[in-house]
Amino acid sequence: MSNIVMCRFEGCPNPKSPKAAKGLCSSHYNQLQRGLELAPLQYRRNVCKPWLEAHKAHDGDECLVWPFQRLQSDGRAAVKYHGKQTLAARVMCMLAHGEPPTPEHEAAHSCGKGHEGCVNPKHLRWATRVENKADMIAHGTRAWGEKQGSSKLKTADVLAIRAATGFSQSTLAKRFGVQQSTIYKILSRQRWRHI
What we know:
This protein is mainly alpha-helical. Helix content is 33%, strand content 8%.
């Protein structure tokens, strides 16, 4: 006899997530957390790719929000394409504007709402990483400092490091739990330039 408890959403083939509340699988719980109405899971490629194909000539000016799976890390739309997880905006950009000039080119959003799942082909264009990062800075969506998930330091820590005169870099590194090279880069403004 199986101890697996299935998701409480009717017809969902997934088991209930041990970490998700309310008896839902992780996918349905994510829908709930994003404030979406619970819906059947339709992010399989037999639904996603036809949806992208059907919307590649979308002509509206408003954001066209991806209704399926999104990356948990940042909310961008995700799709399985040619056997691997890919950003849906990249696939839409290929469908609407052709292949990227180089494999390093990224699908950049003129609306700045890629993190909200926008895949409107009118909002997408091919851009270099530098151009895309410049767009993110202009839109205020680039993760800086403590907003960056891997950051060990907070803004107050960086200000304290810069104000701490008379302490060696190795002492500051031990105090704040980072490498000495990180302290050097903060003091020389190679890192945390925005404050």
